[in-house]
Design goal:
phosphoprotein; Arc Repressor Mutant, subunit A; five-stranded parallel beta sheet; 47% helix; 2 domains; alpha/beta
C-alpha cells in the first residue's frame, strides 16, 4: 500500500528519505501544505486517462466530490490524452500506464515536451509491481505517482499536492523503485558533464533533496537560510535542465549521488 497523502495541513506524501525512513519530516509536511493552501481560488482542472471505462467513472466520481477540483476531460488512450491535454490545458493529468495503442509513458513524455514548463503536471497511477516503466515516466517529467490500491481519498490529496507544484511519490516504494532501475541504467544515459557544472554546495543540496528533505530541513542540516536553499535548488534544476524535485531525485540516483545502501553502483 502507498503511504497516505493527507489533507492539507496534515502530512502529505513526499519523496523517500534515506536515513530518515519512509515518513517525511514535520517541516516538510507544513511546507507542502502551505503551498497547497496558497493556490488561487480557481479549481484544479484535471484530465483523467485510463483505458477502463469503469475505472474512469469511479475515479471521476471521486474527484468530483472535491469542491476545489474540476474534471475537464477523460481519455482512454495516450493519443486522445495528448490531444485533450493540448485543447483543454488541464492543471493535472492523472495518467494510467498500461493502455492499448499509445501507453501512458509515451503520452506523458509527449504532453510534457509539447507544453514545457507551463504545461500540466502528470500524476501516474500504477500497480507498481507490474508497471516497470514508472521510473521512465518520472524521468520524462511526471511529477509523481500513486499506487492504485491506495485509499480513495489519497487521489484527491495527490492531485492537490501535484497542482501546487510539489513532487509526490509513494514513500514506501519509491526509493526501492528508483534505486533498482538506476542500478540497471545504461551508461549512455548519464550526464557527467552536468554533474561537474554543479558547485560543491549545490551537490550537497542535491544529496539532501534525494534524501527527501524539504528546504527548511536542508537549511537546518547545512546551517544555511531557507531562502538560500531555495535559491540553490532553483539553480540545480536550471543547470541540470530538470523540471522539478522529482526529476532531481531520479538524477541523483542515476549518478550515484543519493547515498545510503541503495545507491546505484
Amino acid at each position: 500500500m502507498a503511504e497516505a497523502v493527507p489533507e492539507p495541513g496534515a502530512e502529505p506524501g513526499a519523496v523517500p528519505g534515506a536515513e530518515r525512513g519512509a515518513q517525511p519530516g514535520a517541516e516538510q509536511a507544513h511546507e507542502q501544505a502551505r503551498q497547497v493552501l496558497d493556490r488561487s481560488g480557481d479549481p484544479i482542472r484535471v484530465l483523467l486517462v485510463d483505458d477502463q471505462e469503469m475505472v474512469r467513472d469511479g475515479l471521476g466520481a471521486l474527484l468530483c466530490t472535491a469542491s476545489d477540483i474540476e474534471l475537464v476531460g477523460e481519455a482512454g488512450d495516450g493519443v486522445r490524452a495528448i490531444r485533450l491535454a493540448r485543447e483543454l490545458r488541464p492543471d493535472v493529468v492523472v495518467m494510467d500506464i498500461r493502455m492499448p495503442g499509445m501507453d501512458g509513458l509515451t503520452a506523458t513524455g509527449a504532453i510534457i515536451d509539447a507544453a514545457g514548463e507551463d504545461g500540466p503536471r502528470v500524476l501516474i497511477l500504477t500497480t507498481f509491481d507490474l508497471d516497470e516503466y514508472v521510473y521512465e515516466a518520472l524521468a520524462r517529467g511526471a511529477s509523481g505517482f500513486l499506487l492504485k490500491d491506495a485509499p480513495a481519498r489519497d487521489l484527491i490529496n495527490a492531485v492537490r499536492v501535484i497542482a501546487a507544484g510539489q513532487a509526490l511519490l509513494a514513500p514506501s516504494v519509491t526509493r526501492r523503485l528508483i534505486a533498482d532501475v538506476a542500478r540497471r541504467r545504461r551508461a549512455g544515459n548519464l550526464r557527467p558533464e552536468a554533474v561537474s557544472a554543479l558547485t560543491a554546495r549545490e551537490l550537497d543540496v542535491l544529496r539532501q533533496v534525494a534524501r527527501g528533505l524539504s528546504n527548511a530541513e536542508i537549511a537546518d542540516e547545512l546551517v544555511l537560510s531557507e531562502q538560500t536553499i531555495k535559491t540553490h535548488v532553483g539553480r540545480i534544476l536550471a543547470k541540470l535542465e530538470l523540471r522539478d524535485r522529482t526529476q532531481a531525485v531520479v538524477f541523483a540516483y542515476e549518478h550515484g549521488l543519493a547515498g545510503g545502501t541503495d545507491q546505484p553502483e
